[in-house]
Amino acid sequence: MTNGQLTLVGTGLDIEKHLTLGAKHAIESSEVVLYAINNARAEAYVKRLNSAARMIEYDRSQQFRRSVYEAMVETILAPVREGKKVCAVFYGHPNIFVYATNQAQRTARKEGHAVESLPGISAQDCLFADLGFDPATFGVRSHECTDFLLRPRNSDPHTGLILWQIGVIGTLGFHAAESRARGLSMLKDVLLDQYPEDHKVYFYVAATRPDNKPDIQRIAVGALERARITEVTTLYVPPIKAAPIDPAVKEALDITFHGEQKRLSKSTR
User: Fold this and answer.
1) Residue 236 in contact with residue 256, Cβ under 8 Å?
2) How many CA atoms lie within 13 A of 121 on its CB side?
3) Whole-number pLDDT of residue 60
4) What is the pLDDT of residue 195?
5) For residues 27-50, average pLDDT
6) pLDDT surpasses 70 at 20
7) What angle do CA 69, 14, 147 make, to 5 degrees?
8) Average of pLDDT values for 138-165?
C-alpha cells in the first residue's frame, strides 16, 4: 500500500472571511478535494480554488447520523489509500462536531498516512465575538445538548454554559420537530433547577455571508419554547453571577482585587 496524505480543513462560518491562507493552499494544491459544506456560495468558492473538487454525497433520510458519517469516512479514505494527496473540506472547524473528520484522522494515522488538520473559525469563536464575552472571565462549559440531558453533570450556574445542536435535541437522526419540542421542555426543567425563571439566555446563529448579521435572540429561561430554532442554533446560558472567592486561597496567593469582584458580579446580568 502506498502511503497517501490527508489534510482536513475548515471553511469557517463565512468562507470569504474565515478561510485561512493555509487552508486555501491545501485546497489548491491537493490532487483530490472532497467537501461537505452547507451553502452554494462556499461550494462555488472551493471549486474556484480547485476545479476537481467534488461533494461528499450523503443521504439525509438515514435514521441515524452515525451511519451517514461512517460512509463519509470511507469516501475520504478511499483516495488516501490509493496514495493520493487528499484535502477534505468541512464547514466551520474540521474537528468540532464533525465525526467523519475525526474518525478519518484517527484511521489514516493508524494506517501510516500523513495527516494534518488546519483549524477553522468555529461557531464558538463567532459566538464569543458576537455576544461580546470572554470565556476566561467566568469560565465556560460546552456540551452537545442531547448528551447534556442524557448524562447529568454537576452544573455550576456561576460558569457560562454553551449547548450545541439545539435543533436536533432528542434525536440521533436529521429531522427532529417532535423530539425538539419534547427535548426543549426537558431542557427548560433542567435549567430551572439552577437558574431563575427570568434569567436571560441567548439563542445564537452566526452569520454565514458578508452581508448578513448574526441571529441573536435573548429569551428568559422560563420561555425557551418561544425561540426560533434551526438545525444550527446554539444556546448560550450566561452565569448568574461570579463564583464566590475562597478567602484562604486569596490570602495564600496574596491577591487584592480592588473592587474587581464586585464589578464582575454585576456584569453578568
Assistant:
1) no
2) 18
3) 60
4) 96
5) 94
6) yes
7) 40
8) 92
Please enumerate in sequence order all residues whose Cβ is within 8 A of that of 227, keeping only pairs 6 or more positions apart, or say none.
203, 217, 219, 233
**What is the four-CA torsion angle of 152, 66, 99, 179, rounded to 10 degrees?**
-40
Instruction: Confirm if 111 and 81 have CB atoms less than 8 A apart.
Output: yes
| Residue bearing cell 454537576 | 154
| Residue 87, beta-bridge partner list | 7, 33
Spell out the residues 6+ positions from residue 241 whose beta carbon is closer than 8 angstroms to its own: 158, 265, 268, 269
What amino acid positions are annotated as catalytic residues? 65, 69, 91
Burial 39-70 (b: 16+ CB within 10 A, else e): eeebbebbbebbeebeebebeeeeeebeebbe
Q: What is the pTM of this model?
A: 0.83
**83-109 pLDDT tens trace:** 999 999 999 999 998 889 999 999 999
Give the residue with greater pLDDT, 264 vs 215.
Answer: 215
- Say how far residue 50 (Cα) sits from the centre of its chain: 26
Sheet architecture: strand order including 114-118:
54-55, 32-36, 85-90, 5-10, 114-118
- pLDDT category of residue 211 using cuts at 50, 70 and 90: confident
**CA-derived radius of gyration, the chain:** 21
pLDDT tens readout for residues 161-178:
999 999 888 876 555 556
